[in-house]
Structures are given as structure tokens and as C-alpha cells.
Design brief:
The chain is built from 22 helices and 13 strands. The chain is α/β, with parallel strands linked by helices. The structure holds arginine (ARG).
Length: 615
């Protein structure tokens, strides 16, 4: 990259690193000059803070050191003004050419997002529905967050494997299959409602009322009630035994059961794919790496642990013990059965050894924190913490909180059921559509007179965008209240606000009637403070994407886009575009509009949110 098109922060870093060595000697090679954006535009664009801590460390008054650094730094070609302020901050206002050259560089070059050169794939473990029941709100978060992380990493040029670790094997499935069979349900016609009913019946039937017995005994309610409950418990036991038998048959590959099993999965997954489609998440069968996928790997996985003395017997079961925690991790039950953890170990082995991934990202409910800590540590003990070509594997659990209802309790329907994802998305789409329809009735609205189909598709983008943005913009581990009114508002830090900002710029560009070629190569004139602020924010995009990626935090992109929209509004209020004083200024401002539009659309895409051009 030539000196002219380098990012101003890169330039300032180079210049001040050199100045530090020149003033203080070669042992200060590599000291961070601490370049930060200025707190307020009247101080300039950037602040260099290194003199503060360095001065104190070497016993020179920071202000003196700051002055020496400024004297030594070669700033003539890039800064308009340089001041030393307060106890030793260096304030820098960049020259207009440095800013406009940097913007030129970014507009022709992937908007400033630097590609990461790493041939290892990254695995993102997302969605993870359990096929014995419907997808619920918790899976919404896993899917939305996981997909956004995947998009961010892909944007940097990484190969991403989105893997759906379906709960499609084990006792819960066997229980439902058993119940469906007892109730003689025709699985070819299986509906989600029937599945729900069977799931609940299976759960209720197999749960003995142990607590009930304890209460009855404690309060001496009477022996007949205890006997009654005991009988119920015995029933539960026999159902559990029947389900266990079904599981054995399933595991042995019993043809009829396997056929039923496929039908059950088809029924759930049809609905899942519909929801994913609505969510604008591209996943299909090829992304499925359910528990069943690993079923034949489990004995070998356990063998790795026993052969290397990493697992010990404990009352007939096999456990892995860790030095720093009490709880052992069970990998095989005394009856020979495997566990959720065993399957996750098999998945890690497959991802590292066969898929050669060096980053495994699990987007799963915060309640599974201990599970992942144990599984990751155990996998490292087994040697799956390094790829076959010797790279350390980063394993990260991205925990997320619950979606709460207005009563601050986990979201439930009025009758107390878990809210299904499908019903929630339906509501979002309906709200988005009515909002867009209402606005289109205003004659001044750009959507006025559009066809019902067009309005419906914008409405869908708005409704879904609102839900996704609300989910991604908050701190992931925190629970949040599902409040459709707040999410769908066109004001404030919401999805629709950003979508609207984007559409508005599209309409400004459209009305100006100048084709892109007309301004694409024109000089950017950045004289007004609002123009400079907007330019500086645009120049941060690459760094924000990089930090969202390394910290695995999509909300950094949300915050950035929101600030960008606010700065754009400030610019648009203070700097006339179509009525600019000169043709040059008009074209320069159109270019700024266009660059903002491109960054907004790119950023929304990283969040998996559509950016309609009319709203
Ligand atoms: N099916 C699991 C659940 O609903 C989530 C799976 C998460 N992924 C994993 N590799 N364990 O709790």
C-alpha cells in the first residue's frame, strides 16, 4: 500500500513508533503509540496518548516528552494541526488529502475490510434443534448469532462450516417414537401438533412423581396416597424401560424404527427450514451434523480416553477427572450407554482431525457453560487441541441469555407453553407488514403507490430485521425482553432505523439523478466538520469488522452502524447535497452518500439483515 492510501491510523502508528525510537532509543522499538479517535472534534481527529504512560515510566514529564515526540515526528505531509494539550496528549487534525486518499483506498478495496489469510476452516455450531420437538425461541438466538458470526468470518475470507448439531439420537427420540407407535399415529402424515402431543405424553408418562411422594410422606397425608403415587412411579419405570428397549432397537438399526425416525426428522426439519428461510439463513441438509452423525464414532472416542489413562472407572461408569474442578465428566454410563458429552467429544475430533478446523465456535445457551468447559478441556487432553498440521485450535463457547416475556420470565404463551419460533416470526412479519403499509399511505412516502406484493416483501424484511437486530445488538449473555413495539420502531437503535437510513440514502442518490460513474472518481472535499466526522467513521469500518470477528461480538457492528447513521444524519442536515454551492461539492457529497450507503448495506448483510432500497 502506498503512503497516500494507507489508513490514517496506520500512518500515525508508523510515524509515532519511529518518533518514540528516535527520541528514546532502539530499546523502545515496538512500543504502542496509543492512537485513539479524539473525544471531541474541536481537539482534532486523533489523539496520541503514549507520552502519558511512557513519560511516567522513564521519569520524564509527559508534556516534555510529548513535545519532543511532536518535534521528531514527520507530520508535515499528513497533519493540518498538531498540539500538545493538558498533561501530555498530542492532538492531531489530519489534512484533507490524507482523509480523502484513505477513503479512495477503502472504496476501491473491500470497504477497508482486510482479508485474513488462513486456510483452516472455522466451524460454527449453531441452531442445534432437538428433532423430537419444535424449534423454540432459544434456537432463534443460536441461529441468528451463529449465522452473523459466520457471515463476519466469511467476509474476511475465511471458510466457514455451519454445523447444525441436531439432537436427533438418544432416549428422548426413542421415547417419542415409542409413544407414537403406541398411539398408532400414521408417521407418513405426522404433523407438528401430533409430535408435540406425543412429546408431552412421553415426558409426562416417564416422569414418576418422586417429589410428590416425599411431600406426602413428610406431611403424613396418608398411606393410600403414597401407594397411588408409587404405582404411578412404577408405570413411569416400565415406560422408561420400554423406551430404553426402543433405543436399543434404534441403535441396532431396526429397519422399521429407522424409517419412523426419518419421518419424525422430516416432520420437524420441514418446519425448521421454513423458519430458517424466513430468517434469511441459508442452511439445509448439508449442514446437518446431528448427534446421530457421530453415533459410530463413540466407542473409538471412549477408547482414546481409556487407552491413554484419561478416563477412570467410577461405580461401573467411565469418567474424566480434571485437576481444577470437583465435578467429573461422564463419558460412558455403567450400562454402556454414551452421553451428550461423548458425542460432543466425537464432534470435536471430527472437526479438528477430519475437517482440519482451527477455530470451533459454539453458539449455545449460557446454561451449558460447564458442559463446554469440560468438553473442551477433555478434548485437549485427548490431543484434539491441535490440528494435524500443528495449529492450536481455539474452542469457544459463545453463551447467550434467554428471551424473556413482558413479565421478565422466559417467554411463554398465554396458556403457559413455550413460544415456538414459528409463531414469533409470524408475529414479526405481520407487524413489519402493517408498519410498512401504514407508512405507504402517506403521499410523501417513497413507498406510496407500490404494489401489495412489494410492500409485503419490504414489510417482511422490516419485521425480521427488527427481531434479528434486537437479538444481535445487545450484550449476548444478557437475557432480554421480547418487546416487538420497541424492536420495530423506526427511531432509536433498531433494525428498522438502520434499514430506513439506508433506504433514505438510496432515495437521495436516486433523486440526484447522477449515475455512479459521474461521481465515483471525483475528489472528496472534506471541509465541514460533519463531513470529516462522517469520513472518519467510514474509515473505521474495517477495524470494526476485524474486532467483531476476533471478539466474536456482532453487536460491535450494530453500534458502529447506528453511529454511522447518526453521523450521516448530522452530515445531511448540515451539508446540502443537491443544493451544494458547486458542482464539485455536489459530486463529492454524493460520493460520501454512496460510500455510507455501501457500508450500511455491507454491515447489515453481516448481521443477516436485508437492506431494501425503498422504505
Ligand atoms: N441440542 C442441544 C440443545 O438444544 C444444543 C446443541 C448444541 N451443540 C452442541 N454441539 N452441543 O440443548
Amino acid at each position: 500500500m502506498s503512503q497516500e492510501t494507507a489508513h490514517p491510523v496506520t500512518l500515525l502508528n508508523e510515524i509515532f513508533s519511529r518518533a518514540i525510537v528516535d527520541v528514546l532509543g532502539p530499546e523502545h522499538e515496538g512500543v504502542d503509540p496509543v492512537i485513539r479517535p479524539s473525544k471531541s472534534p474541536e481537539f482534532g481527529d486523533f489523539q496520541v496518548n503514549a507520552a502519558m504512560s511512557l513519560g511516567k515510566r522513564i521519569g520524564t514529564p509527559p508534556r516534555d516528552l510529548a513535545e519532543k515526540l511532536v518535534e521528531s515526528a514527520d507530520l508535515a505531509s499528513i497533519a493540518e494541526t498538531v498540539d500538545v494539550a493538558g498533561p501530555g496528549f498530542i492532538n492531531i487534525r489530519l489534512s484533507e488529502t490524507v482523509l480523502s486518499d484513505a477513503l479512495d483506498g477503502m472504496s476501491g478495496n473491500g470497504l477497508g475490510v482486510t482479508p485474513v489469510d488462513d486456510p483452516h476452516p472455522v466451524v460454527i455450531d449453531l441452531c442445534g434443534v432437538n428433532v423430537a420437538k419444535q424449534m423454540h425461541v432459544g434456537h432463534l438466538r443460536s441461529t441468528i448469532i451463529g449465522d452473523s458470526l459466520a457471515r463476519i468470518l466469511e467476509r474476511q475470507g475465511r471458510e466457514v462450516l455451519r454445523e447444525n448439531h441436531l439432537g436427533d439420537w438418544g432416549l428422548p427420540i426413542a421415547m417419542v417414537l415409542q409413544t407414537l407407535r403406541e398411539e398408532e399415529v400414521d408417521l407418513e402424515q405426522l404433523s407438528l401438533d401430533q409430535l408435540d402431543t406425543a412429546y408431552r405424553a412421553a415426558q409426562a408418562g416417564s416422569k414418576g412423581d418422586d417429589r410428590g411422594i416425599a411431600v406426602v410422606e413428610e406431611r403424613r397425608i396418608g398411606p393410600h396416597r403414597v401407594a397411588e403415587l408409587e404405582e404411578q412411579n412404577a408405570g413411569a419405570e416400565s415406560r422408561r424401560a420400554a423406551a430404553a428397549e426402543t433405543l436399543v432397537l434404534l441403535q441396532q438399526g431396526d429397519e422399521r424404527l429407522i424409517q419412523d425416525w426419518h419421518r419424525l426428522i422430516d416432520c420437524t426439519m420441514r418446519a425448521v427450514y421454513e423458519s430458517l428461510d424466513l430468517l434469511n439463513v441459508e442452511m439445509d441438509e448439508s449442514n446437518n451434523r446431528g448427534e446421530s452423525f457421530y453415533r459410530n464414532h463413540l466407542p473409538e472416542v471412549v477408547e482414546t480416553f481409556t487407552a491413554n489413562n484419561l478416563a477412570v472407572e467410577d461405580e461401573g461408569a467411565l469418567v474424566v477427572r480434571f485437576e481444577d474442578r470437583e465435578r467429573p465428566m461422564l463419558i460412558q454410563k455403567s450400562d454402556g450407554g454414551f452421553l451428550y458429552a461423548t458425542t460432543d467429544l466425537a464432534a470435536i475430533r471430527n472437526r479438528v482431525v477430519n475437517e482440519n478446523a482451527d477455530r470451533l465456535i459454539y453458539v449455545v445457551d449460557a446454561r451449558q457453560r460447564d458442559h463446554f468447559k469440560d468438553v473442551f478441556d477433555a478434548a485437549k487432553l485427548a490431543g484434539w487441541g491441535t490440528t494435524t498440521d500443528g495449529h492450536e485450535v481455539e474452542m469457544r463457547h459463545i453463551p447467550f441469555g434467554s428471551v424473556l416475556g413482558p413479565d421478565k420470565k422466559p417467554l411463554k404463551t398465554r396458556s403457559g407453553e413455550n413460544v415456538t419460533l414459528a409463531s414469533l416470526l409470524e408475529e414479526a412479519v405481520a407487524r413489519g407488514r402493517s408498519e410498512v403499509l401504514r407508512r405507504s399511505e402517506d403521499e410523501r412516502s417513497p413507498t406510496h403507490g407500490m404494489s401489495a406484493d412489494e410492500l409485503a416483501s419490504i414489510g417482511r424484511a422490516v419485521g425480521i430485521g427488527a427481531v434479528k437486530y434486537a437479538d444481535l445488538s445487545s450484550d449476548l449473555v444478557r437475557d432480554y425482553v421480547f418487546d416487538m413495539d420497541r424492536m420495530i420502531a423506526f427511531e432509536g437503535n433498531t433494525g428498522p432505523y438502520l434499514q430506513y437510513a439506508h433506504a433514505r440514502i438510496c432515495s437521495i442518490l436516486d433523486k440526484a439523478g447522477v449515475e455512479e460513474e459521474g461521481f465515483a472518481s471525483k475528489d472528496l472535499l472534506l471541509r465541514e466538520p460533519a463531513e470529516r466526522l462522517l469520513a472518519l467513521q467510514l474509515l473505521r469500518y474495517g477495524e470494526v469488522v476485524a474486532s467483531a470477528s476476533s471478539n466474536l461480538e456482532p453487536h460491535r457492528i450494530c453500534t458502529y452502524l447506528y453511529e454511522l447513521s447518526e453521523l450521516f444524519n448530522g452530515f445531511y442536515q448540515q451539508c446540502p447535497v443537491r443544493k451544494a454551492e458547486s458542482e464539485d461539492l455536489l459530486l463529492s457529497r454524493l460520493r460520501l452518500c454512496d460510500l455510507t450507503r455501501r457500508v450500511l448495506s455491507d454491515g447489515l448483510d453481516l448481521l443477516g439483515i436485508a437492506a431494501p432500497s425503498t422504505m
